[in-house]
Amino acid sequence: MLHKLTLSSAIKKLKKKEISHTELYTDIETQIGKINPELNIYLSLDKQAIKKAEKLIDKPLAGVPIAIKDNFLTRELPTTASSIVLKDFMSAYESTVTDRLQKEGGVIIGKTNMDAWAHGSSTETSDFGTTKNPRNQDYSPGGSSGGSAAAVAANVCISAMGSETAGSIRQPASWCGVVGLKPTYGRVSRYGVVAMASSTDSPGPIGKTVEDTAILLEQIEGHDSFDATTPEKEPSRVAEHMKKGVAGMRIGICYSDHANLKNKKVTEQIFAAGKIFERHGAQVSIVPVSDTVEKGKILKHDYAIGVYTVIQRSEVSSNLARYDGIRYGVDRSNLGPEAKRRIMLGTFTLSKGYADKYYIKAQQVRQLYLENFRQLFQDFDVLISPTTPSYAEYIGAGKDNPMFGELEDMLLEPTSISGLPGISVPCYRDEKTNLYLGMNIVSAWWQEEKMIRAAYLYETESAWNEWRK
Amino acid sequence: MKTTISSANVDHIASLSHIPITEAESKNLADGFTKVLEVVDDLFGVDTQNIQPVSQVTGLENVTRSDEVLTERMFTQEEALRNASRTHNGFFVVDQIIDK
Question: Complex ipTM, two decimals?
Answer without folding.
Answer: 0.93
